[in-house]
Design brief:
By secondary structure, this protein is mainly alpha-helical. Helix content is 62%, strand content 5%. The strands form three sheets. Strands 2-1-5 form a three-stranded antiparallel β-sheet, with no helix packed on it. A two-stranded antiparallel ribbon has the order 3-4. Strand 6 and strand 7 form a beta hairpin. The longest helix is centred in the last third of the chain and has 34 residues.
Length: 653
């Protein structure tokens, strides 16, 4: 490594400039592609979570834990990243992290290849006999094939699926640790001071686009049947509107692994030390001397760093403004973690939409509007040169508007469809099909001609099946169905899909409004901590995000969703994923959490206004705590003094 640096110094400056790997613009281009690929995996995972849940019979709590598990490794190792800084070969660490994320993506897709074919009711009962799901007096075929299916379910390959998914998520989080912090610090070190904000702005924009692209990719992949690689087109009997449909959730992870591998390769060729970009800067024209200073033995040891970490963290958290703003952001981050994981599932169930369409709504509507709100919030701060106290008032007003726009979502939704023997609960609803010996595990929803839904044709008491020229099925002779006594395949639906448009309009508006607070709240943090603690304060902030929001958020939302289940699926005597939810309870509890978190964020921002107003009323002679850094400047000389001071501190850091 040292010899490499000496060779660089001995080469003429012109030859260094000719190599694209000594050009910071090329690094920004490569890093944008890498962050896009890495965040695409994260967004794709959340878009596929309900499909994985259905495929492997997971509860929403388990799938929420799976979604949050990548934060575990990230949280543990992020402290070491803040210590290492520029002590290591940052491009190689970034490339290594990307290759680890590539391996994690392949692990996430592996359960598909270890598992057998996806077993839904008709396949479990008898793959070759279409009449097996009808009302019959004997079930000898059912028990035989069901026993064969259960032996597959209990195989070692099947039992390793969930641990393998958890391991993939853990490695994905570990691989992501060095990518953003090392990339940002590398760009800031070797870009000119004039161009650095532009490059970082490009990275921020790509960071915002990545998850949206992941959701859109998920929407496309989930239109393919999960076993399309194992079955011919004629053998695939389900369509994407069927409640039993499972899309090719694994396919996107293979695509993402290829993208991560390709974007990781250039980092093996970037130097540890890059020539400083020409931009008219008089500061640090020789980055190699800076690197040598960084690597001197005067740097604290890792042990000293770990010992001082709690002390500096407590000192930072003693700032009331910092603590309140971070708690407000934690509330909003917990809200975001839950919505990103389960909102597509809510849309699918409430408005009887397909999984791919629901996922597209999140990736194509909510996330872009949130990105737009973040950008406009930053533009507003820059245009009007808003102070810290002004930023606190802006955040409070914005979150208050978000509370008003999100509350009506509780009222927009569909009632639970009538399902015989399930909802509304009744004891005699299944008496007419008692002689049919319907399997307890049967789930093949049909809609009766009287508008009542049944779990399967057997539960509807249907004895015949008719197939027309277009291969459409109809079940006849259904003794449990009123009226004309026939049933058609599929769910009856909730019958209020027309409410989807106003629901999405309000949800998109809430995303747009709430995201306005992101940039002002970051500015409040950066302007109210001492300059020597600034980078550390941001690190503590991200750690609190993960520990208090991103890790427990999806699990909390998943647990709340599970409480609204009115019929659990069963396979081989074990409980699997939920088949039917009480839609009113689902909507009210899920979106009720949204309102609670928005209210928590509003309360914290409101308290910052109160604290700042009390400080502004103090006599000038009264000392201001470390948490009130720069507030005195703002009161004395206005925002210009503050911005100049901030600019000076930016050169030091």
């Amino acid at each position: 490594m040292g010899a490499n640096d000496l060779n660089m110094k001995s080469e003429p400056a012109g030859s260094l400039r000719r190599s694209p790997f000594n050009n910071i613009k090329f690094f920004v281009f490569c890093h944008s592609l890498l962050q896009l690929a890495q965040l695409l995996v994260s967004g794709y995972m959340k878009s596929s979570i309900s499909t994985i849940e259905r495929r492997y019979g997971l509860s929403s709590q388990k799938s929420g834990l799976l979604a949050a598990f990548n934060e575990v490794g990230n949280t543990i190792l992020i402290v070491f990243v803040s210590f290492l800084g520029s002590r290591v070969h940052r491009p190689r660490f970034i490339g290594g992290g990307a290759l680890l994320a590539c391996l994690a993506s392949l692990l996430m897709a592996m359960p598909h290849f270890l598992s057998g074919l996806y077993d839904y009711t008709d396949r479990i009962i008898s793959p070759s006999d279409n009449s097996s799901s009808l009302c019959q007096s004997e079930s000898s075929v059912t028990s035989l094939s069901s026993n064969e299916s259960c032996s597959q379910q209990e195989s070692p390959n099947q039992r390793v699926v969930y641990p393998l998914l958890l391991l993939g998520q853990l490695l994905l989080g570990i691989g992501a640790v060095p990518i953003q912090p090392f990339g940002i610090s590398y760009i800031d070190d070797y870009a000119s001071r004039k161009n650095s904000p532009l490059y970082l702005g490009i990275l921020l924009a790509v960071t915002s686009i990545g998850p949206a692209l992941g959701f859109i990719t998920g929407s496309l992949m989930l239109r393919f049947y999960v076993d399309f690689d194992k079955l011919s087109r004629d053998q695939i009997e389900l369509n994407h509107k069927d409640l039993r449909w499972v899309g090719a959730w694994w396919l996107g992870f293979l695509v993402a692994a290829c993208l991560l591998f390709l974007t990781a390769l250039p980092y093996l060729f970037f130097p540890r030390v890059m020539p400083k970009e020409d931009g008219g800067d008089d500061v640090e024209t020789r980055p190699d001397s800076k690197q040598q200073q960084t690597d001197t033995p005067q740097d604290p040891s890792l042990l000293h760093f770990l010992k001082s970490f709690p002390r500096i963290a407590l000192r930072t958290l003693r700032s009331p403004i910092y603590l309140l703003v971070v708690l407000a952001q934690v509330n909003l981050a917990a809200l975001l973690a839950g919505l990103a994981t389960f909102m597509a599932k809510l849309i699918e169930r409430q408005f009887s939409q397909t999984v791919s369409f629901s996922t597209m709504m999140i990736g194509g509507v909510c996330i872009p509007l949130a990105v737009l709100g973040t950008v406009l919030g930053g533009a507003l701060m820059r245009r009007f040169n808003i102070s810290v106290s002004g930023a606190s008032k802006l955040c409070t007003a914005v979150i208050l508007l978000g509370l008003f726009s999100s509350t009506p979502l509780l009222l927009i939704g569909c009632p639970t469809q009538r399902v015989a023997g399930v909802f509304p609960p009744s004891t005699d609803a299944s008496s007419c099909s008692a002689g049919c010996q319907c399997p307890q595990e049967a789930f093949n929803p049909v809609c009766g001609s009287d508008g009542v839904e049944f779990r399967s044709p057997c539960h509807a008491g249907c004895i015949n099946i008719e197939v027309d020229a277009n291969h459409n099925r109809n079940y006849t002779g259904c003794r449990c169905v009123g009226g004309q006594g026939f049933a058609s395949p599929g769910t009856c639906g909730s019958g209020c899909s027309h409410l989807l448009l106003p629901f999405m309009a309000l949800l998109g508006l809430t995303s747009f409004i709430a995201s306005f607070s992101q940039t002002p709240s970051y500015i409040m943090i950066l302007r109210t901590v001492p300059p020597e603690d600034k980078s550390f304060a941001v690190g503590v902030q991200y750690m609190l995000f993960r520990v208090l929001a991103f890790m427990p958020g999806p699990v909390l939302y998943g647990s709340v969703i599970d409480t609204t289940c009115i019929l659990w699926g069963r396979k081989c005597g074990k409980q699997t994923s939920c088949l039917y939810y009480n839609l009113d309870s689902f909507r009210q509890r899920f979106l009720g959490l949204l309102v609670v978190f928005v209210g928590g964020g509003l309360l914290c921002f409101l308290l910052t206004v109160v604290v700042l107003r009390s400080r502004a009323g103090r006599p000038e002679s009264q000392p201001v705590s470390r948490g009130g850094y720069e507030l005195v400047n703002e009161q004395k000389t206005g925002e210009k003094a503050s911005s100049k001071d901030q600019e000076g501190k930016g050169i030091k850091t």
